[in-house]
Amino acid sequence: MTEEPFDPTLDGSDRAGAGRPASPFSLALDRLQRDPVLFVPFVVAGVCLWLLDWIRRHDPLPTIPAEQTGATVTVAYTGYPTGVTETARALSSLIDLKLPYLVWGITLEVVAGFVIVAAGTVTIARALSADSGGTTPRRLLAYAGLVALFDVAFRILTALVGDDIGLIAGLILVVPLFVVFVRVFAAPAFIVSGSGPVAALQQSGRATRGRGWSILVLVVAFGLAAWLLGLVPWVGTILSTALIGSVHAVTVAVVRETATDGHGGR
To answer: Which residues cross the membrane (predicted)?
Structure first.
């Protein structure tokens, strides 16, 4: 006997009350409570990323440690469901390496990206139930393309901005950045539903139209929560990935579904 995907429409319990739709966040928590299997992909991903943290700390290649000081509050949001790792590796650290070290460094980063792509695709597909069509290699590849697009854009922005930036200049950059985060919030779910990266970004923009403030709250909340959980010693990577990654992925699926129900997401 095989287990059927969670059906979000069962008994109409994805509604807060008589005719009043619940928030995407509360719907996501309800689905996770009723279908705990949704946590499994990001739990596995969190353990894998934790192991990669350990490997990075012990291999000869330079790493970028996560900031563990309490002087700075960080919104660790990247545009797709993930967690906060304890270590990272700058692309510049791979320059001029001998071939064996170059292959080693690239392999670790590819593995890290793959586990997040796989966890996001599987979780969102299950949360979308029959509407997603399941997980296929094509959708994994499209999701990987979206993640790569976000990562490249983030790395370019980080390189251009640097660490020494004033308050006014920071606000000028942060405001449009968060506008973009809001507009692309549902893009991962449209990818899993079968759209290409460009079409998914366009559909997400339409799906989030008219409810930007509520999604902005989700973006900030997920980013702060991921950062705080990432500060927990030893297990921060696992906690932030397993909890925030899972909740974020299911919330993205809910936003996509509610958009097609009445907000013009298709």
So the answer is: 37-55, 101-128, 140-161, 167-192, 213-232
d(CA 61, CA 66): 16
Q: Say how far apart CA 214 and CA 182 lie, in whole Å.
A: 9
Average pLDDT value for residue range 22-38: 95
Read off the tokens for 144: 């990987």
> In this structure, how many other beta carbons lie within 10 angstroms of the beta carbon of residue 101?
15
Q: Torsion over CA of 90, 92, 98 and 100, rounded to 10 degrees?
A: 30
Measured distance CA(24)–CA(255) in Å, rounded: 6
pLDDT for 154: 81
The highest-confidence range among 85-94, 164-173, 188-197, 236-245, by mean pLDDT, is 236-245
The mean pLDDT value for 154-179 works out to: 73
Which has the closest alpha carbon to 26: 257, 253, 251?
251
Cα 163 from chain centroid (whole Å): 24
Res 16: pLDDT: 47
Residue 84, phi then psi, degrees to nearest 5: -110, 120
- The values of phi and psi at residue 186, to 5°, are -90, 0
pLDDT value at residue 72: 62
Alpha-carbon span 220 to 188, nearest angstrom: 18
CB 30 within 8 A of CB 151: no
**Going by C-beta distance under 8 Å and a sequence separation of 6 or more, which residues neighbour residue 180?**
none
Residue with the bigger pLDDT between 10 and 119: it is: 119
Each domain of the chain, given as residue ranges in start order, spans 10-262
